[in-house]
Amino acid sequence: MNAAPPRDPRVRLTWVQPEDLVGHELRQAAQDGRDAREIEERWYAAGGSPAPGRAGACEPPASPRLRALAGELLDELATQDPPLAADEPTELDAIVAACPHWPGPPTSALAVGDGTPAAGRTPVVTPSRLHAAWLGRAAGCLLGKPVEKLPLTGIRVLARATGNWPLTTWFTARGVPAELLSAHPWNRRSAPTSLAENIDGMPEDDDLNYPLLTLLLLQRHGRTFTTADLARLWLDELPAGRTFTAERIAYGNLLAGVEPPETARRRNPFREWIGAQIRADVHGWTHPGDPAGAAAQAHRDAVLTHTGNGVYGAMFTAAALAVAAGGESDVHGCLAAGLRVVPPHSRYARAVRLGIETARTEGEFDTVVDRLHAVYADTHHWVHVLPNAALLAAALTHADGDFTRSIGNAVSGGWDTDSNGATAGSLAGLLAGTPDALPHHWTTPLKNRLATSVPGFDGAGFDTLAALTHQEALRP
Q: How far apart are CA 155 and CA 145, in angstroms?
């Protein structure tokens, strides 16, 4: 056996330094319709690299000359006006103005926390339903963890090797031929805690950390929190090493003295990726029957790190969950409500509509996924919000409210498997209504225990989290 080559002590994580970001920003420019060909030629002529295929991969550092050029080019790219800006505003007033069917304030006389009707009040979601939503989010996330970053073909062959296709239960390495595991290795960080044979409670994941932080934010500041409040909370309570892509860039900007919302824009090529969408659940859960209020609150959260379509992902998710929390029992109605808070000419709205329409016209979900990959796989990173929005909408539409099919579809479509599984599980769990309505093979391994680095929540039970969330839903 040959000895391993010596480790270069200078090797560091990508998507932190300017040279890691230029390729991603050039790709975003192409998606925005900006003409960055001259900048791209200068970058490659100087020896620059394209965007890394996998965020977090290790590469040797750039020379000081290339690093300086990368910073200059990022700043130059930031001065370009996106041709789609008029259809994809970031400011809330402009978003509301662009949405012809923006929801009005809730006014109907509906039951509140104790079941007593009260005119002008919306229904307060029950602790039991919130418990199911927390469990659903955790189960969907955990299902997607071992196959995160794997290509679609790898996910399919690994599941089929154990007879688990379509997905109806956890992934397992038992019975999978060694050559398949060699060709398609599990996510190395997640496999020790997310395969069927070793699940022991819910392991830490950013898809659960962010809802916990939102809960903490509401406990400290209530519904009137500002984006600056969220920024301070992150600096106080969120370890920088638990942030990724847009969140890590924004975190670094905060440390450098940049104030929101500029934190989302300064040298942040990930500003239209999925990060804000995974932070939106608690905003929806605590605004039952009030999609407009949920979307506006999610907007204040999202603009710390995202712009345009990245912000719409948070607003869409929050609004869809808000109507589910308010009593909507039809998943299709929830998705329709989500679309009402998204500018209809935006790429995000088009992605969601594509996912819904494709799911409605294709009987086999694998065919749905293949059609979506044909549209997005060659042009968008697997963490970008647009392909994942299309897949999430398709997964939920095709599942028609069934919990197992909802999370199974979301994960089986590839891309950001744990994030899509989490959001699908959150909505499907909320619609299911109670923890007992969820199949026990999804909830029992969670052992009512969550691991996290968010202070005060490590080891918390999902029932406890549901009770705390319910308190915030009751708050004026």
A: 11
Which residues form the domain of 24?
12-83
Q: Are residues 33 and 99 in the same domain?
A: no
User: Count of domains in the chain?
Assistant: 2
Residues 24 and 128 in one domain: no
Structure tokens at 314: 């948070």
Q: How is residue 228 written in tokens?
A: 């600056």
Residue from 445, 449, 476 nearest 463 by CA: 449
Sequence-distant (6+) residues with CB within 8 A of 341 are 95, 99, 102, 103, 291, 292, 295, 312, 315, 316, 319
Structure tokens at 23: 């390729």
Length of the chain: 476
Report whether 373 contacts 114 (CB < 8 A). Answer: no
In the block, tokens 């590469």 appear at: 59
For residues 465 and 166, the answer to whether their CB atoms sit within 8 Å is: no
Amino acid at 58: C
Tokens 């209530």 found at: 222
pTM above 0.85, yes or no: yes
Q: Using the structure block, give the residue that is written with the tokens 């204040």.
A: 300
Buried b (16+ CB within 10 A) or exposed e, 307-332: bbbbbbbbbbbbbbbbbbbbebeebe
pLDDT digits (tens, 9 = 90+) for 93-130: 999 999 999 999 885 433 333 333 344 445 679 999 99
CA distances in angstroms from 249 to 271, 338, 408, listed in the order given: 9, 27, 31
Which residue, 34, 50, 83, sits at the end of a domain?
83
**In this structure, what DSSP letter does residue 329 have?**
-
Tell me the C-alpha distance between 27 and 20, whole Å: 12
Same domain as 74, residue 107? no
**pLDDT tens, 177-192?**
999 999 999 999 999 9
CATH value at residue 343? 1.10.4080.10
Q: What is the pLDDT of residues 356-393, one digit of tens each?
A: 999 999 999 999 999 999 999 999 999 999 999 999 99
Token output for 407? 């999370």
Same domain, 255 and 340: yes
